[in-house]
Amino acid sequence: MSCVTTNELAISGDLSQLEARSAESLPPEALGYIRAGAGDRDTTRANAAAFRRWGVRRRTGTIPADVDLSTTILGTRMPAPVLFAPVGVQTLAHPDGDLASARAADELGLTYIHSTQGAYKMEDVAAANGDGSRWYQLYWPTDDELAVSFLRRAAAAGYTHLVITLDTTLLGWRPLDLDIGYSPFLENKGIANYTSDPVFRRKYMPAPAEASPLATGIQFARVFQNPGLSWSQLPLIRDNWDGPILLKGIQSPRDARMAVRNGIDGIVVSNHGGRQVDGAIASLDALPAIVDAIDGRMPVLFDSGIRTGRDALKAIALGADAVLVGRPYLYGLALDGQRGTRRVMRSLVDELEEEVRRARHRTHRTLSRSSLTRAR
Prior knowledge:
By secondary structure, this protein is α/β, with parallel strands linked by helices. It contains 15 helices and twelve strands. Residues about 1-10 have low confidence and may be disordered.
């Protein structure tokens, strides 16, 4: 990808420092919500530590002049194996929220995954994304009629792939949020897809959301948490969605094999960045065994802990076909809106390209576990 422009230089190229820098510009409740991890944040820390346990095995020889990062995932052509992860309530970072991120994704040619908990409704985000590549992430509500309505709206708005998140059927216990006493949903932030939905409005909103935001937030909470979700319900989605379906939140080889048996098209190895369950295995530690279990039968994407292009290289070398990036672009959004988001994601892709080149590969597709070594 091309080099950064002069007006983007306000965002440091040191991606590891984004969180600290954005903390200076965010109010406590927003920073707490974005940074929060479940419990003692052990899983969040484990995600980061897992990358440090791997070193890149550097080869001698000529460094390639050009590197090809292009790839195709389930029919979607991408200039690099990097996607915008679904992130909810982005207006906590910047008033333009999802709209700015969707525009940045379009400018970079990267796929944008819109969250059910978006701060703007899916149709507005699709319009902001223009001709860009976009997928839709579903938090499966308890009301199947509402779920089907979400799917129909997403398809009509040009979302081509469906990503079903499995690890948030119950919200995580996040002490930082509890200490602050803050939930954006009770202020009707992050529920625009619900309050704009005809099914939700008919069944759960007797009055406009603006008239009673607390009541609307409580109604949202009742349909959001879905602990009874099971594999047996997947045919409902398949019957109402024509495009590829991916499951996000896979952490075990057994569940990966179940995804294959149930006709799922792809999976995302993820622990939600440590936001939902503490004490979980680091996502990177879970990846190799899941890749082995899948054995090439479907694409395996990776999420949780990616902060740099070097992290992306390690996940790809361990078997991921592509990676999802979440918090880093949100920190860029907080620092400089659409321009900041674009700078962060462009820097990450540029760093990935440089790391692949320095490992003496002409493409990320030739990376393998032999490209890494266990660091002491």
